[in-house]
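Q: Structure tokens for this one, please.
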Amino acid sequence: MHQISSVTEESDLQQLERDTHIDGNRSAQPGLLPRAQETDSRPTTIIRAPSFSILAIAGALRRLVHYHDLLYTLSLHRLKVRYKQSVLGPSWALLQPTLLMLIYTVIFSRIVRVPTDGTPYALFAYSALLPWTFFSTALSTATNSLVSHFTLVTKVYFPREILPLTYVIAALIDFIVASSMLGVLMAYYHVPLSLNAFFTIPIVAVLTLFTIAVSLLLCAIQVRYRDIGVALPLLLQLWMFSTPVVYPLSIVPARWQALYSLNPMVGVVESFRRVTLQAVPPDFDVLAISAAVAVALLLVAFIYFKHVEATVADII
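A: Here is the predicted structure, written as tokens:
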């Protein structure tokens, strides 16, 4: 396993040095102080923790946009590496939620009968597993992105948030591929799409923002406390059963639903299921809570990540 990780790090470093122009072509940015070297004409970038201000956040976002070519290159590289030397290749993006759907269908429709409001359980489960698989896959891979690419982090400067972002983008592509199976299941069970399906766009946008927020936060903490990576599989299992993935929101007692809805994945999963299967608009109140939590957490996570970034190369 260690050997595979090393190959990936070297490949990422070679890709970075070959396809981007970091070596001396980046102009000085606020908070990044270039210094001429006698033996090397390239500038040296000194990374310092930014101040907690709107200008500092705006500057960090501008630098991220400035490195959009690197984000694109590494995201494409991430997809290629994920399925390299795999017999099934991108088909794994379909197989993972499909196999989970089959297992849950046997358990929760044959052994333990869960109400689905008249929807076939296979379709009911798959419509929730789609956004959940995107979230869990992105989170489990992005959390270790800085630690697993320590060679890249310690050798060249670039906005470190690019690494977890590439894993989120790769998971989003898998989500789009796996969505084709939802269309097949809907056609098989004669469930038509309505115009409300267009609400999937803002729903997926909220899901993506929340996924980025949690990924940045856990990725930054993982650099200092490796317990996060060990505990994450258990956390994701508990989180899934705290989200209406294998059961409907309607079975949650009314007195608990307000507290229950503070979990942003509740609004995302339930709304995605409503607009695709039930042909009705999302529950805007629940979805608004998810969006508010996602945006607030993203701001906090980004500030914390940029603050930790200054010492990542020393600690990692």
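A few notes: Residues 7-315 form one domain. The mean pLDDT is 81.
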